[in-house]
Amino acid sequence: MRLLVTGGLGFIGSNFIRLMLDRHEDCKILNVDAKHYGSNASNLADLKDDKRYSFLEGDIADSALASDLVRNMDAVVNFAAETHVDRSISRPDSFLHSNVVGVYSLLEALRHHNPLARFVQISTDEVYGDILEGSFTEESALLPSSPYSASKAAGDVFVLAYARTFGLEAMITRCTNNYGPYQFPEKLIPKIIIRAREGLKIPVYGTGQNVRDWIYVMDHCRAVEQVLLRGRKGEIYNISAGEEKTNLFIVKTILDMLGKDERSIEFVEDRPGHDARYSLNSSKIRHELGWRPKRSFQEALRMTVNWYLQNSDWFRPLVDDKILSATPWRLKW
Ligand SMILES: NC(=O)c1ccc[n+]([C@@H]2O[C@H](COP(=O)([O-])OP(=O)(O)OC[C@H]3O[C@@H](n4cnc5c(N)ncnc54)[C@H](O)[C@@H]3O)[C@@H](O)[C@H]2O)c1
Fold first, then answer.
1. Pick the catalytic residue: 33, 59, 82, 125?
2. Which DSSP state fits 142?
3. Rounded CA separation 46/51 (Å)
4. Residue 141 Cα to ligand 1 middle (Å)
5. 10 CA from centroid of ligand 1 (Å)
6. Which helix (H) or strand (E) holds 106?
7. What torsion, rounded to 10 degrees, do the Cα atoms 186, 187, 190, 192 define?
8. Does residue 232 share a domain with residue 196?
9. 278 CA to middle of ligand 1, Å?
10. Does residue 126 have an active-site annotation?
11. Which of 19, 50, 178, 269 has the fewest Cβ atoms within 10 angstroms?
């Protein structure tokens, strides 16, 4: 299989590329990434001698490039996106560029140059907004809260429209919050691990009662693999491990795993429009494609904590020394 993966220098894309090369001998992957914020070339440094893997720096919103890229591919998996919610609140323009124009550009390229190729759009549970009780299904209305989730929802509806109007072999996955190796240190779980390891205060938004539905990144990647190989055209697949936890529970569990004191927790002003609870019903992918998560939350979180403890060479260049040596209540990145 000739596979174009976009955004493969990021957290989930890099884990997905490694999983596909490990599990599919015949897979050849071209990774195209604009090296924006959140990307890290060292995520895939171990693949530099693998002849089945190649990298090209490029922007998916560049329509001429997108047309060239899709021509000889059997499939395209689009992880490329601006992903940090706080950044979307301060500077939404780049989110429109990558998450809306970028998706449109890939769809147009496929429509004109390779309409039979499979296309998987990697989306998020955040497109549904938050839910106080029950869980969202694939039929739930889209009600995004942040510029980030609004831009992802816009990308999704373009994908559905192109599947219907032009018959593209396109599918969407909507996954809950990921954690695991190679996640950029500004995100909740690596941030807690790194700051706790350095003896710094752990900032928690509001009262820490916001609930997120957590999934280990390799379980997410196996779900994307199944959708890529066997998903049905024009369909949406929710992906969730059903591990709903408050942010405060996550912080306390990590502090406990590291043998650290809970007094390092510092409650800070809440994020504007902060979603209270996310919850997804993932029975469709479980029944239709037979996917289910392999790792329990405790097991995968322990593996993740150990990975960061053993890979300070990976995260240290991403973290400013001033931040590590001082005790600010909030990271500046
Ligand atoms: N991290 C999560 O918990 C989570 C959960 C559900 C869905 N998702 C989705 O999964 C995908 C990957 O998320 P992630 O956490 O790995 O993000 P990430 O920020 O780690 O990686 C995104 C990558 O996309 C690249 N990129 C951005 N704009 C680009 C463009 N215009 N052209 C080419 N490359 C571009 C960046 O350089 C980066 O390497 C995103 O689409 C995100 O919406 C993430």
1. 125
2. P
3. 12
4. 23
5. 6
6. helix 102-113
7. 90
8. no
9. 19
10. yes
11. 269
215 lines ligand 1 (CB under 6 A): no
Do the strands 28-33 and 53-57 form a parallel or antiparallel pair, or are they unpaired? parallel
Q: Evaluate whether residue 154 is within a structural domain.
A: yes
Do 136 and 24 share a structural domain? yes
The CB of 212 under 6 Å from ligand 1? The reply is no
Q: Global pTM?
A: 0.95
Digit-coded pLDDT (tens) for 249-274: 999 999 999 999 999 999 998 877 77
SS3 215: strand
49 and 155 assigned to the same domain: yes
The count of domains in the chain is 2
CB distance 215 to 229 below 8 Å = no
Residue 282 in domain: no
Is 148 noted as a catalytic residue in this protein?
yes
**89-115 pLDDT per residue, tens:** 989 999 999 999 999 999 999 999 999
CA–CA gap between residue 90 and residue 314 (Å, rounded): 28
Domain that holds residue 266: 185-212+244-276+296-325
Beta carbons of 214 and 245 less than 8 angstroms apart: yes
